[in-house]
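Follow-up to my post from last week.
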Amino acid sequence: MDIGFIGLGEMGGAMVANLLKAGHSVRVWNRTPEKAQALAAAGARVVATPAEAFAGDAVLSMLADDTALRTVIDAALLEHAPRGLVHVNMATISVALAETLAREHAERGLHYVAAPVLGRPDVAAAAKLTIVAAGAAEAIDRVQPLFDAIGQKTWRIGALPQQANVMKLAANFMLASAVETLGEASALLGGHGVAMRDFLDVITSGIFPGPVYAGYGGMIAEERYEPALFKARLGLKDVRLALAAAEAVSTPLPVASVVRDSLIEALAHGDGECDFAVLGKVAARRAGRA
Amino acid sequence: MDIGFIGLGEMGGAMVANLLKAGHSVRVWNRTPEKAQALAAAGARVVATPAEAFAGDAVLSMLADDTALRTVIDAALLEHAPRGLVHVNMATISVALAETLAREHAERGLHYVAAPVLGRPDVAAAAKLTIVAAGAAEAIDRVQPLFDAIGQKTWRIGALPQQANVMKLAANFMLASAVETLGEASALLGGHGVAMRDFLDVITSGIFPGPVYAGYGGMIAEERYEPALFKARLGLKDVRLALAAAEAVSTPLPVASVVRDSLIEALAHGDGECDFAVLGKVAARRAGRA
Amino acid sequence: MDIGFIGLGEMGGAMVANLLKAGHSVRVWNRTPEKAQALAAAGARVVATPAEAFAGDAVLSMLADDTALRTVIDAALLEHAPRGLVHVNMATISVALAETLAREHAERGLHYVAAPVLGRPDVAAAAKLTIVAAGAAEAIDRVQPLFDAIGQKTWRIGALPQQANVMKLAANFMLASAVETLGEASALLGGHGVAMRDFLDVITSGIFPGPVYAGYGGMIAEERYEPALFKARLGLKDVRLALAAAEAVSTPLPVASVVRDSLIEALAHGDGECDFAVLGKVAARRAGRA
Amino acid sequence: MDIGFIGLGEMGGAMVANLLKAGHSVRVWNRTPEKAQALAAAGARVVATPAEAFAGDAVLSMLADDTALRTVIDAALLEHAPRGLVHVNMATISVALAETLAREHAERGLHYVAAPVLGRPDVAAAAKLTIVAAGAAEAIDRVQPLFDAIGQKTWRIGALPQQANVMKLAANFMLASAVETLGEASALLGGHGVAMRDFLDVITSGIFPGPVYAGYGGMIAEERYEPALFKARLGLKDVRLALAAAEAVSTPLPVASVVRDSLIEALAHGDGECDFAVLGKVAARRAGRA
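User reply:
Got it. Predicted complex:
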């Protein structure tokens, strides 16, 4: 397919590489052009403006947050996009902005698909992302070959694009809550002289298998918070988005409120760039042991 | 081995059956004798007093809570127990009582091992319990054949018996927090018209495999809270014990505080005998949707 | 003085009436002109555009929230305002917007004073507001006669305008927390058959005198949440602003998080237009008694 | 009247002094006899056993907590007390123990009145305590002259003794919440460079008059946490009792849960003997500013 791609951070760059490998023609644009140049060697065509990327069969975007997205994808860009174009937004953005984008695209005869991904850069590089897609079924059908090139599984979960964002935020909320809870459990165990390592062995071989408890739990057990797989600062952003999405439908999320407070405390102590497993340090500090 | 067993509830009864199958000789005692009679057919010897059970090579106890334990296992009982006897307490009790029991046994030349188990009655019946043991290594060595008869794995995690109780409470705290978080996520998703079932498919096939998210999440998705696998009332008891164990070492557990509040709310609405997945109903009610 | 006034809601209208009584000349503008007409009879000059109000010796504004303010007071308006004009913003807005406004005014040679008020419409009508002012001292000096006409006391608390907003938000946070706590205490007392009325008699005649405990406590005791003195919906807005102001300086406010969750729960049950004493109903509902 | 008095701490000692001044005959007993001797000079008769104090027209007790009370006032003591004796318990104890005591007294033909007091030692010395009494009206009538000698006002709030304890715990919960909130507000203000002192001036001259906001707020503003008027350790005890009383009637108290967590954090940092205004230090530490 002939596609555009906007936003070439770690995640976006890895996706483009896999799209090229699968034989797609990709026009790429990035705010800082160096990242685009690096992909040129792999066959990407570097374009000078977002508008040039916003054409062809489809355009994918992977921008950092609401503000970054709004700086690039504005009314003027949409106005000049070819009718019938499918725009697939793979970033984790607010539910409110997703609703706005869906409406703005529809008004101009454009298709808008929200397809946030689960998985970190190493998973993206291996083309094993989990894709959570929502939007009109025929639009998703058209871009499914692209999803197949970058992910191992696409879940279709609704006709309203923002529903994919809600699901992504709910998943990240679950993740953040599990890490906060691991941190608190670690503080409890430490106070009684029980090794967190032993605890993890017990729970990960039984009730809590899988990467989250072993991975983040291990970082807490070793008090090793760098390099960050998922930064505390970004974890806070996602929890904030989950709280806002919940407030929009009058839903309290008391555990999310607690996690937000703990992440703010991490930032207050200069640990915003650490992995958000640093919640273990926050819990230990409160107990006077960090 | 020649052992005694005190406390023949669902869990205790299943353990005794497996101990008998493995060829051990078991004297059993229960507050209400009917349950003991049922095991007589399988080869257990029913005794009339706890003191008769408290003899032989070892005695195992599985009583409901601190109060039930203290009613049966008092100073008089310990005073008359044969020196060198190993008492293995498999119940989930408070850390404070575990410390007291350890001291009382030691003063009288008795061995005290704390060995709480992970697993529900069906797991106990299959002799697949996970056993978390703490106490003197030589005492645990002596009763290891008993653990092998009822569980699939014994974790030894410390020389102080109460450390096993701390670990058990920490595990149950993790469990309760995961369920609360599932409940809150469900309310968030429901507010935006996303199916909890779809969400579970996504997370259990990726970041959150294992029985907890699938099992309790499934109950929340189906709003099916009976029959209870783990009652809300008992979940509250364990969270309360975790909070007390944490307070004893000056450790705040803010997520546990939230879960405690939610479980109290469940009880206030008459749902104490429901499975503690009923936390999903609590979260939905707060959002005006239950 | 020759002044403009923008925003003629209940609060703004009462202020203008008092400014006229004190002999000032007031040009008034409101989005919906009916409210302006009502003040014409009292001597106000109704103008057709915000720009006409934004002139003379000073302009006061009292708009509902950040969005309402931004719709009216934009770059174009400020660009055409006469240099040296003092703009006094008396509304409760976000700290972030206050910082932005201060910068935008300074860049154009305008003075910006933040002067949020404590007190409800009846207090405004009696010219007894408490004014919390921040900004350049000389700018505040110039508008002090205006403050004297509408309030009984002006507190000057800093040179940075946003500091006044922080203080206002902190005060409203204290207020909301007191009401939440009254609600929870009421639920506790009710559970034990103790009358909230008796409790209020005891605490308001001793440790907690003053209007907050007697007033909101009385509404909770009588379960009378309408008419609203301070709507739950607006209380939630202010708590949200306090949380945002705190997050901007990496400060967790766990009690504010709890109050936010409770107010969301009130809105979820259709009580957003009730007085925020309806937090008492939320607390009672959680306890299964509402 | 001819009365006994058990428990001669700071509060109890001050009460006895005032009872003697008012002309009553007082037999005093204390665990450590030195304190009793000091009162002998003022006319008290020192007795050697609690039983000797538990006689005459009435006996008042003021023991530190549930454990201290249970060590002294047990079944044997009540068994030998003269029928018809009125026992007035002025200490802050758990609601559960109050219920138990009420039953135990009634079974033996003794009257039990709960009469916890509001006020610290200086208020007790000035005979200006606020007394919250519950129990049978005729029993309270008989001891009213004693209340008049030590307090300025007696509130009668119910026929069940434990209701007075509930009210006292609710009042202390309100107090602790106000202090936590002051601490959080202080952290918010500090982050924006606004003086806590200025904030207190504004709120105490308007919405929050009275001793709590001025007193504890002042300690937070000055970061002066010693000497303690009300120790953090004892504040935690009272919040714990409030939470237990609420749980007994299935009532969540989310703000109390937050305050409990903060007080535990204070203890973890060695500040248990500080005034519980040290909650201000906890809030500042979380924000990285203490």
